[in-house]
Amino acid sequence: MPDDGGQPLLWPFPAAQEISEVLEWRTDVLQARAGEQRIALRALPREIITVRHRLDALGMARVAELARAGFAGECNVPLWHMAVQPVVDMDQGATEILLDTSVSDFRGGGLVAVALDGGEVVPVAIDTVQSDRLMLAEPLILPLAGLPLPGLSIAAGRITVAPIRAGVLTSAVEIARRRQGDGTVTASFLLRDAPDLTAPVLPSYLGRPVQTDPSLVRRPLTASLRRAVEYVDNGFGPVVVEPLRDVFERGEAITLKAQGTTARWALRRWLYSLHGRQASFWLPTWGHELQLRAAMTSGSVLMRVAPIASVAPVAPIASYVGRRIMLEMPGGLRFRSIIAAAEDGAEHRLTLSSNLGEAVPHGTNVHFLTCVRLDADRVEIQHGAVASELTLPMVEVGE
């Protein structure tokens, strides 16, 4: 959708409902009997956003003309799901906007969308991006009918600022009219120039990051316990089950919810660091599986717990060995490995890879750590007015 000057036209309409965003990677997963190799085929994800607008008759007519002008061309799309507000009031003609630039995709030399009271967009060119402000390439003038412009101050709460990216329409623009002058417009855009975000700082253990956000809502709606096998049936005798892989696969779904601009940006950075199915990480079960029967001293490596594994052949006690655990200590989270296990009367005695360096009180929460990766290269995020939410399928993988 180029204008007469060869620049993409602006999609100026404010978003009226939640925005759907899809991130798509490509990963080649090569599976072997004892593990797998994952090769990232797309360094940065494709981003597809679906926005909905509540418009009057004139607005719907403008949408139709924009689509007619060049459906296959590019247009500048405000990213309302990354919008922030200034931290101080602004004057008409200002050449800078004071806000936190670290929680959105603002780029020097690009464009920024400024909207007043949820109205239409005023695009402004960005000169440079600093940590606490955007330096504009030209003075900002917001449309205020009937009010004098020079020296007019506008409350920060009335202003919304969002980055602008070039995109192309990926499907038909849909218009649903409630009445002649009231309708909803739905449009989907494939964005250009995905940002190369740095991974967030997370605790790490054995070379992998640990996702320790306790706000994760684990919903095992699609939980499954499986192992790759082949059923051999010659039609005359019993069916024989032949394992194809030594790796036990546990799959489940987790739901993440990020509230506020800082949490939303941290979630985005973490998703980018996973590269779809390529990267693995540690995920606590938050299940309180290991319940201490006695406190531990600071130098002890012996942990007495209530039994969860029985004698062979049902669930051998040796199944503890090699498991990773997380302890919620008063001084912070601690990660250890179980290197030995034995029965001790009505308790199980576990030996940890090293002591905790501090006393472990009775009643400390202890959870298993599982090494997981995404089980899909496509992630869909629902951005609401207050929070963003998504559900991710996970699968347990070998270390």
Number of domains: 3
The low-confidence runs, each spanning 5 or more residues with pLDDT under 50, are none
- The chain-level mean pLDDT equals 87
Shape: elongated
Number of E-state strands: 30
Alpha-carbon distance between the two ends: 49 Å
User: Radius of gyration over alpha carbons?
Assistant: 27 Å
How much beta, percentage-wise?
35-45%
Describe the secondary structure blueprint for this structure.
Elements: E1 9-10, E2 19-24, E3 27-31, E4 36-40, E5 46-55, H1 57-69, E6 74-78, E7 90-91, E8 94-98, E9 111-116, E10 121-129, E11 133-140, E12 153-154, E13 159-169, E14 174-179, E15 182-191, E16 204-205, E17 208-209, E18 217-218, E19 224-226, E20 229-232, E21 240-243, E22 249-259, H2 261-274, E23 280-284, E24 302-305, E25 324-329, E26 332-344, E27 347-352, E28 366-374, E29 378-383, E30 387-396
Parallel strand pairs: 1-6
Antiparallel strand pairs: 2-5, 2-29, 3-4, 5-15, 6-13, 7-12, 8-11, 9-10, 9-13, 10-11, 13-15, 14-15, 16-17, 18-22, 19-22, 20-21, 22-30, 23-28, 24-27, 25-26, 25-28, 26-27, 28-30, 29-30
